[in-house]
Amino acid sequence: MDETLRNSVKAMIKETFEGPPIPVKGSWFTNPEPNSGIFGVLEESTFDEASLLIHGTTLAAHTDHIRYHMWGTNGILNTGKQPKMEWEKSWEIQAVDEEQWAQIQKDLRNEYQVLLQAIDAIEENEVLSNVVIPSLAHSVYHLGAIRQMLKIIKAQ
Prior knowledge:
Elements: H1 3-18, H2 38-43, H3 47-50, H4 59-79, H5 98-121, H6 125-155
Helix pairs in contact: 1-5, 1-6, 4-5, 4-6
Organism: Lysinibacillus louembei
Protein name: DinB family protein
């Protein structure tokens, strides 16, 4: 496996979830400040905000959907097969309490850690290109969606 490619993909995944590396020397697609990745943005959100319905969905649903998608990606990387996915269920979470909101974020962090470890074990560029990079793009999309939802929430 090409280590340069592996390291580049991991750097983009880390930026997506953790924000740009510190000290910040710029970023590829997040804001060039600490905590501008998914984890930092979500940590600034309360469970009440995560439960607000914005255009038919909530921050809690987006967050759990990212976790679910990543769980599926990890399944492919660890077994070579796509697990049975029920996409509609990944959007079912609406209102959450403080404990549920913390658990959703914890579960997302756990899948993230599993993904980073799985990437280290990938031996073929094809797997990285066909499984991990699309998962990265999916997560980046949801980072943007979450940030836009938060603009609406904070403006209320």
